[in-house]
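Hi support team,

I'm filing this because I wasn't sure whether my run with magnesium ion finished correctly. The job status page said complete, but I'd like someone to confirm that the output block is well-formed before I use it downstream. Pasting the exact inputs I used:
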Amino acid sequence: MTITPVSPAAPATVVPPPPLEHLRSPTTRAVLRIQQRILAAARELLGAEGFMELLPPTIGPVTDPGARGAKQVDIDFYGHRYKLMTSGILYKQASLLAFDKIFNIAPNVRLEPLETATTHRHLAEFHQIDVEVAGATRQDVTALAERLIRHVFAACAADMRDELALLNRDHNALLAVADADFDTVSHHEAAERLQALGHTQSFDAELDWVGEELLSRHSPRPFFVVDYPKGSRGFYDRESRNDPGVLRNFDLILPEGYGEVISGSEREHDYTRLITRMRETGENPAKYRWYLDIAREGIPASAGFGIGLERLTRCVAGLDAVWQASSFPKIPGVVSA
Ligand code: AMP
Ligand code: MG
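And here is everything the job wrote out:
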């Protein structure tokens, strides 16, 4: 396994305490109980809507290349170079060969750039609630994401009062999300808003973390950002047929400065277009053999999304940093348990 360089200079405020202190702390226990309720609530809603939970693979010959500046981790698989999953996207699409509505709760490993150690939003190991629906449109899955997030906040507001009180988390902030109609803005509108707020943001690029947090602080409720420009995301986000250069994707941004918690999209599944998009994003199609073999035979059209579990927990529990939502947190560049 590749060893990460160690950052000796990570500021103390972002470094978790040693496991003994972290795991015994009443704060950690309250946060992990809330996280358990979040997982149960997600399973309740998805189960009631007929989703099949599949256990995710954690290694494979290729993984999601679309992670903003993060490095992948190689492992030696009997003389073949395999990867730890950065996300389950390729397997989610393939799983639709078996079931139409699926989800995984999956660990992901991403060696994020060292500068992310201080964002309070990045871990090198985190978990996603990863959902995919055959035949769905973006509208279908943003509506599903909204139902799911609202159900999670309502369940935690109802059942986690003691834990929320211990954490000094305002119970009404949860009810505000549970009762909200989520807004939608285009990436273009989001960039315009940022420029109006004095933040430099290109119309052709990913929203940066600072900009996203700024938008999040200025919004009273969660909102979707849709239509990111091509080039900002992976080859599997479907390009609009009517509006070339624009992707049929979305992020969900939570309020109060918590920022992005979900990314999702309609998926590209057409074999020829997948190869074109791989080449455009600098990926070598030969690496994706098992996936392209399936795509040639026909992967179902689909849409789906991934929810960052620790980021969701951070917002529900009102935490300063995402590492507080992990029992054994891995901060980029910091050696720990
Ligand atoms: P992505 O498709 O890369 O946006 O990942 C899906 C979701 O996983 C994001 O919306 C975040 O909630 C979460 N996520 C992504 N990267 C990280 C990270 N390094 N640490 C914690 N959560 C993450
Ligand atoms: Mg994202």
